[in-house]
Amino acid sequence: MIIIKNGALVTPQGLRRADLAMEGDKIVRIAAAIEPGEDDTVQDATDCWVFPGFIDGHTHMQCWTGMDWTADSFETGTRAAVCGGTTTIVDYATADRGVTMPDALVEWHHRADGTCTANYAFHMALAEWNERNRADLSAMREAGVSSFKTYFAYDHLRLDDAETLEVLEELKRVGGILCVHCENGTLVNALQKRVFEQGIHGPEGHALSRPDVCEGEAVSRLLYLAHLAGDAPVNVVHLSTKLGLEAIRAAKARGQKNIYVETCPQYLMLDDTCYLEQGEDGFAGAKYVMSPPLRHAGDRAALREALVAGEIDTIATDHCSFNLHGQKDRGRDDFRAIPNGGPGVEHRPVAIATSFEGQLGPEDLCRLMSENPARVFGMYPRKGCLAEGADADVCVWDPQARWTIRAATQHQAVDYTPLEGFEAHGRAKAVFVNGVLAARDGEPTGAQPGRYVPR
After folding, report:
1. Are 354 and 423 within 8 A, CB to CB?
2. Residues 277 and 180 in one domain
3. Domain residues for 44?
4. Which of 20, 46, 165, 265 is deepest in the core (most CB within 10 A)?
5. Known EC number(s) (predicted)?
6. Closest by Cα among 89, 118, 10, 85 to 349
């Protein structure tokens, strides 16, 4: 057995002083004191918090986005995740137009199986709606896929409103949840052209062409469609604006219950002044080109207030990494050609713990980054809680650690981090995946114990 001793276990009821024993891939015992036998291994957790492993419910590893392949593979991305305390990711497999969902799932398994340090599950994104996809929804559920995604933006991915309504109705029938990228793609296309023709070609044009109205309108439209589908369950991903938040509040006020809200560290910590960053080559603002874009300081403040008030359910990363040099800089003369996305899977837990120090306690961090993702995406109570019989995914967290985030020392396979120079408070001291020590003090052990998680 592996015994974690002298720590404070993080539970929904508060911190509990207790020892925890893991055997194989399960938590087998929690007690006030567990005495080790001669064959047992002890992990000292004095002055540490013991979390159920963190879950990142929104990643894009080893993914072709229509412009380029992401910099992180499943191997490098999950290794980086575990170094930061994340033991499970839920990645977006995508059935492009002309590709069936079963074939897409096979392809994503081919990319991930046998390479992962963290556990991995898959959402399934639909780029078209037809009778074949309707029929395959049940097969996806049987394969352990309980969450799906559609887009209101990107011409090669988006569905129209009538198609989205049918997807919502079918998912309600088969017991799935729909995650939606909420930006008005028609407006984005027109505004991109308008901004470019005004002579704005740099990274700042990205934010100017995707204003908050594009998100607010799309969030409102999604929630009306979900209402029309009989309060079908929806997950609003990467919420970035006060307008979007107000649309969610309005839907809840009129009685909708099955609304889940995700945001990301970048929308809680950064703002659109980042696009003016020059750097050595005058193009550093491209690091922050992601969709939705970074927003005004007022949006950031509204989201932070909502997070502390309990209005946001989960914090994910939307990790979609591209190198600044050799990938993002291809759009030097046209912001529309900058690959959209940024890294974050390694630093999410410490970024939130530090940024909200004094506002969110360990129980809140657990709820936002472990328990709620497990509940929303069909993994609870196997994951997302410390309990006898639960999976042995455990993060021993040292809240006293102090260090600085640097691209030079990160494990994400990308040449920058949006949080360069951030003074971090806390660190994953020991991270266990399926009962195997996968990272210690922010460094990988070399083990690859990650498994597919059917949900």
Report:
1. yes
2. yes
3. 2-50+385-402+423-444
4. 20
5. 3.5.2.2
6. 85
pTM of the model: 0.98
CATH number at residue 389: 2.30.40.10
Condensed to tens digits (0 to 9), the pLDDT of residues 114-167 reads 999 999 999 999 999 999 999 999 999 999 999 999 999 999 999 999 999 999
- Whether residue 124 sits in one domain with residue 26: no
Residues in the chain: 455
Task: State the DSSP string of 402-448.
Answer: EEE--GGG--SSSS--TTTT-EEEEEEEEEEETTEEEEETTEE-S--
Query: Residue 351 is encoded by which pair of tokens?
Result: 């970024």
* Same domain for 89 and 8: no
Element (H, E) at 56: strand 54-59
Report residue 276 as tokens. 């003016």
Question: Is 64 found in the same domain as 45?
Answer: no
Does the N-terminal peptide bond of residue 381 adopt cis geometry, omega within 30 degrees of 0? Answer: yes
Q: In the chain, how many domains are there?
A: 2
Greatest pairwise CA separation for the chain in angstroms: 73
Pair 37, 62 in one domain: no
Contact yes or no for 161/169 (Cβ under 8 A): no
Q: What is the distance between the alpha carbons of residues 116 and 74, in angstroms, rounded to a whole number?
A: 6
Residues 245 and 100 in one domain: yes
Encode pLDDT of 79-120 as tens digits: 999 999 999 999 999 999 999 999 999 999 999 999 999 999
For residue 103, give both structure tokens.
């074939």
Whole-number Å distance between alpha carbons of 186 and 437: 48
CB 438 within 8 A of CB 432: yes
Is residue 412 in some structural domain? no
